[in-house]
Amino acid sequence: MTPPDRQDGAVHPSSSGGIGLFQALALVLLASAPALFALLTWQEHYSSTSLRYFSVPIVAAEIGLIACIVLSGTRITAALGQISRISRIGGFGLIAVAASGTYLIAPVPEMARPHFAISMVHLVLALVLVAALRTSWHGLRRPMLIALAIGAALQMITSWGLALSVRSMPDFDWLHFGAGVTHVRQLGFCGLTLSGLAAGLYATTNDRRARIAYFVLLVLGYTWTDLSGGRASIGAALVGAAAVVLLSPRAQWGRLALICLAAMLIAAPLSLLAMAATPYILKERWGLYTAWLKLIGEAGSDDFSSRRTEIWEQTIAAIRQSPLFGHGEGQFRSQIPASLGRLNHPHNSILQFLYQWGAIGTGFLAMMVVPTVLSGWRAAKVDGGVVLPAVGAIVGLGAMSMLDGPLNYPFPVMVVIIGLTMIASVRPSRV
User: Fold this and answer.
1) pLDDT at residue number 181
2) I want to staple 425 with a disulfide (CB 3.0 to 4.6 A). Which of 5, 133, 173, 218 is the partner?
């Protein structure tokens, strides 16, 4: 693992000798897009909007990041030569399956097309990041992760400021909230991103001031996760922290585990104090109390599972109807009765991929992603300052995706893509 005291400080830019204009702009995009997303989608009286549903500000930031990389002079065609044959087959295969699902299979193609376009943006972002992070942007990897953590923190601060602005409104829709989310549980997406990144950043620096800053971010991430009231996100935060600890040098395990535990113990009362500042907040929907009631099944078995078993049963039945190529993207809410016309995913990422892309498309996705995931342990020993923050965020969001839908939304997907390409960038051999 790279010595921790070399992970912070100077940016180690590319051979050009400094951060260029487009690199600086990319950092600004990562740090500002999440908060801008919250601001642009905020409504005192909630209503569904395409801007929020398609996460337009986040997708725009992805396109902006792609443009920054291309305009900086990165040779994108070189990326294909750096990617293994199995990953290239997976990428092209997934594009073919997703395209056929959109234009030939989807029952509601007008909903499939924008989702397909967003998926293509994700794939292009992954491609250009592979090219950039292994060449001229190599020295910008950790600063990009720090900028992403700052962006998540700014979204939380912005969102809570907006929440305080309506704290005296008795008819405010606290369940849907609206600042960059369509449901309060989605606050966990940002909380897990921040806590995972902050844990990894803390674990890989010896700078005292940096550690204080990362610990504050860690507490903030856990506080936001607690406020979401989601059992999946709260449990996933534990899994993400465990991943960072286990990938760190064994001598640091005890100290890092205590740091994460201390942050969680501070975050819990902070989340309760935050809720106390908003008298009309739905306490049966937000916070640790909600998670506890769900966990003990206070309202019965249906409440304990939040109807997931019914949703999963219907999703599996639909997968069996089109097992190879799926039903296309953006079809779930209109085709699965248990969605009640509102849910966009089956609250399980594996079922989500199988439903929209079938076994063949999901297999192609695995060909793209699994080799990089499996390389994480070795990569952490080579460059922990980049890999540990990435792993913390990826594992947290991945664990949550087993019981919720973060991988259906552009912001968490962008975080995972950035994290995976960070891991891939430190491998001595081809991805």
Assistant:
1) 96
2) 133
Q: Which two tokens stand for residue 13?
A: 């830019």
In total, the chain counts a number of residues equal to 431
Q: How many CB atoms lie within 10 A of CB 363?
A: 16
Sign of CA dihedral 79, 81, 82, 84: positive
Which residue in 212, 305, 311, 297 sits closest to 262, CA to CA?
A: 212
Cα separation of 355 and 365, whole Å? 13
Compute the average pLDDT of residues 104-127. 96
Higher pLDDT: 237 or 374? It is 237
pLDDT average, residue stretch 278-292: 84
Query: Which sign, positive or negative, has the C-alpha torsion 380, 381, 384, 386?
Result: negative
**Cα gap 206→198, rounded to integer Å:** 14
Read off the tokens for 15.
Answer: 């051979």
CA–chain centroid gap for 366, Å, is 18
Looking up tokens 């990009």 gives 144
List Cβ neighbours of 139 (8 Å cut-off, separation of 6 or more).
11, 12, 13, 14
How large is the C-alpha radius of gyration of the chain?
Answer: 21
Asked if 79 contacts 295 with a C-beta cutoff of 8 angstroms, the reply is: no
Q: If we measure between CA atoms, which residue out of 259, 377, 373, 390 comes closest to residue 1? A: 377
DSSP conformational letter for 6: G
Residue 134 per-residue DSSP state: T
Position 304 scores a pLDDT of 55
Alpha-carbon distances of 246 from 6, 250, 252, 392, rounded to whole Å? 21, 7, 9, 11
Structure-token pair, residue 370: 């699994």
Other Cβ atoms less than 10 A from the Cβ of 366: the count is: 15
How far CA 64 is from CA of 23, 28, 116, 304, 412, in Å, comes to 11, 11, 19, 42, 17
**pTM to 2 decimals?**
0.93
For 335-362, what is the mean pLDDT? 95
- The more confidently predicted of residues 407 and 427 is 407
293 confidence band (pLDDT: 50, 70, 90): confident
